[in-house]
Amino acid sequence: MTDKLEQKSANRCHGGWVKRFSHYSNTLDCEMVFGIFLPPQVEQGPVPVLWWLSGLTCNDENFMQKAGAQKMAAELGIAIVCPDTSPRGTDLPGEHDSFDFGSGAGFYLNARRAPWSQHYKMYDYVTEELPALVREHFPVSEREAISGHSMGGHGALVCALRQPGRYASVSAFAPVTNPVDCPWGEKAFSNYLGDDRSEWAEWDACELILAGKSKQGLLVDQGEADNFLDEQLKPGHLEKACHLQGVPLELRRQPGYDHSYFFIATFIDDHLKYHAEHLFAS
Amino acid sequence: MTDKLEQKSANRCHGGWVKRFSHYSNTLDCEMVFGIFLPPQVEQGPVPVLWWLSGLTCNDENFMQKAGAQKMAAELGIAIVCPDTSPRGTDLPGEHDSFDFGSGAGFYLNARRAPWSQHYKMYDYVTEELPALVREHFPVSEREAISGHSMGGHGALVCALRQPGRYASVSAFAPVTNPVDCPWGEKAFSNYLGDDRSEWAEWDACELILAGKSKQGLLVDQGEADNFLDEQLKPGHLEKACHLQGVPLELRRQPGYDHSYFFIATFIDDHLKYHAEHLFAS
Predict the structure, then answer these.
(1) Coil, helix or strand for A270?
(2) Per-residue pLDDT for B1 more than 50?
(3) What is the pLDDT of residue B282?
(4) Are B13 and A68 inside 8 Å of each other by CB?
(5) Catalytic: A150?
(6) How many Å apart are CA A132 and CA A179, to the nearest integer?
(7) CB under 8 Å to A196, separation ≥6 — which residues?
(8) What is the mean pLDDT of chain B?
(9) Is A70 touching B (CB cutoff 8 A)?
(10) Is the model's pLDDT at A135 over the cut of 80?
(11) Which SS3 state, helix, strand or coil, does residue A16 take?
(12) CA–CA separation, A137 and A19 (whole Å)
């Protein structure tokens, strides 16, 4: 049991700091790295946190380097924490063989099947262990919001839907909305959770909404030129589930935009302002 | 002789497009790739161009992915072109052995020594061939400005100083200001140009200023926590040369900032606004 952080880098950015830390995760039973942006306002006192969950093949760095979020986050006074996308440093059989399963593809769930269940508990990591660690070491408040991209968009929606009332707001970019019904999700869920599909629903945004788990509003941006739109992301499924359950969904279909960080960079300021409205609401 | 472009990628970004193209460069005698950001205003007519010259180890992608410049460029209506930092696909003896010479380290000069002189003519490439190609294929005007980082900051200053009146404005981030008097410059110049140091001066910003080549104002940002500050960058040399020759220099020393793209991302909007003031001046 340790809650020690080792600082790997620190870069001044927009009057605040982008920092990376490694630590031993008890939840994941391996060494992990995360990134944090601390806005200049931390010098005056605790700031709220936006959790950013990245997509397949990403790690803690992609968002910090490519989204261009720090300028607006510094203006608004919001810290951003970027966890990695899977356990690291383990070498389970087949773990590094494909981009959509294993390393870089933790899917923000708690695996039940061996050997994955020993390490792949990304849900507990991003909702429990890492938040506790961050609150222990940085001047952040209890107020938190969550967002993410693709697999991380799925993660953000699922984290918020499973814990109604926890996050002030939730948003997503091109999320995998219905993993039980797309190739990425079916591959990951069958390996992490087993073949009993009835156990998959608790990790699926559409299923959680249809089960009435939460009525919290959702902001989702989806590029219409996204290569994964029809086969993997299926925003129409989310739209239908929200409509059936009366969940307020702002689904913005963005013509011409694809699945890349250029898409995220274009609309991240809108999401940050959306989260600020909720994080700073009295 | 060919001026054909092959599109490698196109990503919608901030209402415009980030695109990458490969082409055969006659100047460099090899296949090259460049990136271009076209702001939404190109739909109404030609827009001015900012040339961005990147630093050691970079290619055409670093700035486009990490600087977060597209939002402001889209607002202002400025295209940005990012050339690569050296010839590519050649295999000269020792070309790929070090980060500060050869591939990724063209230093934006025209080499005189064999075997480098066959390919390493980055000055002619970024000031002649590429601008002609870009004007042929994209809706850009004759108005141009230039900026860059580190080795590319050196490049931007030298391009502007060698052609007074050509660029509406010039700026730099952490430029190598006096390459004839620092390890990176001495290594590169002796290999590319030969041992006669009298021939180095025409590729050195401080020397060009001291020779009275141009009185154009310069905007320079320099992080005070930059690891390369004292040994390689030497902003004091630039300050002294500008002072002696009455060249208006706005040298902004930024406390706590380092040499990274987080530093560039923090101040790029200031530079874009500076260039816009000059590019759109009547």
Answers:
(1) helix
(2) no
(3) 76
(4) no
(5) yes
(6) 28
(7) none
(8) 97
(9) yes
(10) yes
(11) strand
(12) 12
Q: What is the pTM of this model?
A: 0.96
Chain A residue with Cα closest to B17: A262
pLDDT number for residue A1: 44
Are B94 and B102 in contact by the 8 Å Cβ rule? The answer is: yes
pLDDT confidence bin for B187, thresholds 50/70/90: very high
Test mutation, B8, B12, B66, B229, chain A, max A CBs within 10 A? B12
Three-state DSSP state, B58 = coil
Mean pLDDT of chain A: 97
B267: which 2 tokens? Answer: 């101040």
Any CB–CB contact under 8 A between B266 and chain A? yes
Identify the closest residue of chain A to B263 by CA–CA distance.
A13
- Tell me the sheet residues that pair with A102: A105
Q: Tens digits of per-residue pLDDT, B16-63?
A: 999 999 999 999 999 999 999 999 999 999 999 999 999 999 999 999
Confidence at A282, pLDDT banded by 50, 70, 90? confident
User: Which chain B positions have a beta carbon within 8 Å of A13's beta carbon?
Assistant: 262-263, 265-266
Q: Which residues of B touch A73 (CB under 8 A)?
A: none
Please identify which residue in the block is written with the tokens 């590729």.
Answer: B203
Structure tokens at A245: 């359950």
Strand partners, A22: A6, A33
Which residue among the candidates B259, B271, B275, B278 is catalytic per the annotation?
A: B259
- Mutation pick from A72, A82, A262 vs chain B, by most beta carbons of B within 10 Å, is A262
Per DSSP bridges, beta strands A218-223 and A30-38 are unpaired
Q: Is A91 a catalytic residue?
A: no
Print burial letters for A11-29: b (CB count within 10 Å at least 16), e (below 16).
bbbbbbbbbbbbbebebbe
The CA distance from A177 to the nearest CA of chain B, in Å, is: 23
Query: Which one of the listed residues A221, A226, A271, A275 is annotated catalytic?
Result: A226
Output the six-digit token pair for A136.
Answer: 């222990």
Residue in A with minimal Cα distance to B61 = A66
Confidence at residue B2, expressed as pLDDT on a 0 to 100 scale: 54
Give the whole-angstrom CA distance, residue B195 versus residue B173.
29
Is the Cβ pair B70, A269 closer than 8 Å? no
Where is B158: in which H helix or E strand?
helix B151-162
Q: Give the separation between CA A274 and CA A81, rounded to whole angstroms.
A: 17
pLDDT average, residue stretch B67-75: 98
Tens digit of each residue's pLDDT (9 = 90 or more) over A241-266: 999 999 999 999 999 999 999 999 99
